[in-house]
Amino acid sequence: MSEERITTHRSASGRNGFARWLMVVIPVALGLLFFVPTPYYVTRPGSAIELAPMIDVEGGEKDETGAFMLTTVRMGEANLAWYLYAQLSPDAELMEKELVVGKGESNEDFTRRELAVMDNSQKIAEAVAFRMAGYDVKVENQGVWVMGTVDNMPAKNVLKIGDVITSVDGKKMSRKEDLLGYLSEKRKGDSVEIEFTRDGKKQKQTLVLDQLPQSKNAGIGIRPEDKQEIIVPNRVTISSEGIGGPSAGLMMTLEIYDQLNTEMDLTRGYQIAGTGTISLDGTVGRIGGINHKIVAADKAGAEIFFAPQDDQGPISNYEEALATAKRIGTSMKVVPVRTVEDALVYLRSQPLKKS
């Protein structure tokens, strides 16, 4: 009998030891999974958001029986858990951090750039839509927009994302070509006086040029874009709710134009999603993460999806979108577009959806 009690006691002691071991191992494992960083960002399907509640055009009409929707991608720094998830899920993708946030940039820099690019995309969408509706639109070049700074270069600790360079050494800089052309005549060690605006206030700084990485030229080390003032005749209010990036340009253009165009409901009663940048000439450009946007649109019940038919990669955005649509077995129609006019031609050809 005493031997049986000893055996039982040892079994209980073993179970208690195992339980204590688990109490130590499980928190450590969870800590490793959720708090150990990786050199990656993870992207996955976001959402499809109706544009009519977000956009108001003065003098326009919201008579849509269907809806235009922008699509988003969820993105965040990948801990070990997200890294493992991305290895297993076809709807998650890893990207090296330096492809998302430039070397030496902070997450705040990335956010500022994405919101600035979204603001510019909105203005271009307004210009294209109003021109298509027959209105005069005024476009003025304001200077060179700083969309990023290069690590260990002169501009790094002086200029910020969103600054607008208006002159160098007293010479007006209306476009990025003006700046690049002027600096191409300079050498490493030369000084230049930069005049720029930040949050509406003018500032001046003197920078000493350095050799640009992977280049024979000297420069200040920025990612330049053209900053333009676009003036449309009617006020447009867009509540983008913190959504960043340029990829909603096409769909915002369609929504604004539909509110201006009182002759026809362009949605024809359908749920229409899509993506693509928009240029002032109406060209629709390539975007990233279109596979995730197809999944998001399908989950939201979209019936039509506009995808850029671009020539900027091994395969076009449209081909990427079509492959994902086939993989998930959606009935959503994926439509290739090179210009906003392509989208309009397709929509005008569609029969009214029967309710």
TrEMBL record:
Domain Lon proteolytic residues, every copy: 239-350
Active-site feature positions: 247, 293
A GO term, aspect molecular function: ATP binding
EC number(s) given by UniProt: 3.4.21.53
Domain of life: Bacteria
Catalytic activity: Hydrolysis of proteins in presence of ATP
Residue ranges of the TM segments: 21-42
Enzyme's top EC category: hydrolase
Keywords associated with the record: Hydrolase, Membrane, Protease, Serine protease, Transmembrane, Transmembrane helix
A single BP term in Gene Ontology: proteolysis
Family, as annotated: Belongs to the peptidase S16 family.
NCBIfam families named in the record: SepM_fam_S16
Protein name in the entry: endopeptidase La
Source species: Brevibacillus borstelensis AK1
